[in-house]
């Protein structure tokens, strides 16, 4: 890796990435509607080279490579995510901090599914990504709207807080899943980074998984998985918090509303 400024995030995602890698099939199933949005966006903007930022285990990178035939590169700060991504082939994966990495090539399209909310200096990061685009280059990413609009995630945070009452409350302005929830702030960040033609549109999708996968999901991902790591009897604790998610269970299926922004922008050159 050339250089890294987000070392706390690198450490965090190296650890969290192990759970994501274990549960990657579940994550990809649950987040599939947002993968489909980005594949559709890539089909509408045929480009030779596509960069997927914060690609994680690489499902979106691979899906765009398969759907468009473009050369697709995934960049991620977490080695544990990339180990899993590289197992599948079909795309190239680079370990780097996307905020500062000097990309050696230019990309006609930069995409991201929930991978651009973790920069300590988002203006610098989006300016760096702009430098990595071709003159006709475009940016298209999906990011979460507010916690209130994403009740599955707030339920997980509340359930974890009941297990770790001393944990500090999440700071909405700090790098994290909701760092770009405020569309006005996101537009300002992108403008200051030099992007033009900015469009921020609400997209709502229902994410689903079989009920049998809910406990493996909760124990590998998000705030509950972190709380369970410190527990003496994780199975007992999981059974205790599982009831908080009943409202999302419909028969043998879990249905989770996902409230997001689809953000597009273009290189002003
Ligand atoms: C919520 S996960 C999303 C992963 C993947 N895009 C997906 O949808 O499955 C966020 C990803 O962003 C990566 N990430 C966080 N900060 C980064 C940075 N500065 N540069 C590159 N990747 C970063 C994390 O390592 C993690 O894999």
TrEMBL record:
Gene Ontology annotations of biological process type: methylation
Listed GO MF terms: methyltransferase activity
CDD domains tied to this protein: AdoMet_MTases
Species of origin: Lentzea alba
Entries under Gene3D superfamilies matching the protein: Vaccinia Virus protein VP39
Name of this protein: Methyltransferase domain-containing protein
SUPFAM superfamilies according to UniProt: S-adenosyl-L-methionine-dependent methyltransferases (SSF53335)
Keyword annotations of the record: Methyltransferase, Transferase
Family matches, as InterPro entries: Methyltransf_25 (IPR041698), SAM-dependent_MTases_sf (IPR029063)
Domain Methyltransferase: residue ranges: 50-137
């Amino acid at each position: 890796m050339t250089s890294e400024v987000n070392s706390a995030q690198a450490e965090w995602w190296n650890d969290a990435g192990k759970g994501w890698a274990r549960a990657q099939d579940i994550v990809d199933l649950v987040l599939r509607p947002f993968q489909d949005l980005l594949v559709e966006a890539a089909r509408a903007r045929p480009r030779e080279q596509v960069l997927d930022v914060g690609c994680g285990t690489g499902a979106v990178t691979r899906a765009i490579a398969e759907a468009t035939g473009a050369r697709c590169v995934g960049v991620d700060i977490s080695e544990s995510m990339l180990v899993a991504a590289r197992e599948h082939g079909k795309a190239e994966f680079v370990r780097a901090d996307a905020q500062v990495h000097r990309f050696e090539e230019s990309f006609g399209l930069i995409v991201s599914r929930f991978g651009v909310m973790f920069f300590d200096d988002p203006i610098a990061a989006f300016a760096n990504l702009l430098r990595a685009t071709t003159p006709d280059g475009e940016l298209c990413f999906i990011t979460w709207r507010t916690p209130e609009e994403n009740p599955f995630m707030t339920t997980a945070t509340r359930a974890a807080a009941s297990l770790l009452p001393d944990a500090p409350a999440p700071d909405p302005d700090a790098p994290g899943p909701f760092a770009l929830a405020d569309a006005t702030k996101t537009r300002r960040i992108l403008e200051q980074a030099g992007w033009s033609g900015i469009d921020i549109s609400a997209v709502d999708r229902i994410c689903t998984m079989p009920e049998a996968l809910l406990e493996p999901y909760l124990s590998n991902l998000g705030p509950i998985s972190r709380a369970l790591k410190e527990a003496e009897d994780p199975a007992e604790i999981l059974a205790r918090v599982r009831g908080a998610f009943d409202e999302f269970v419909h028969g043998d299926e879990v249905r989770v509303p996902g409230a997001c922004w689809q953000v597009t922008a273009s290189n002003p050159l």
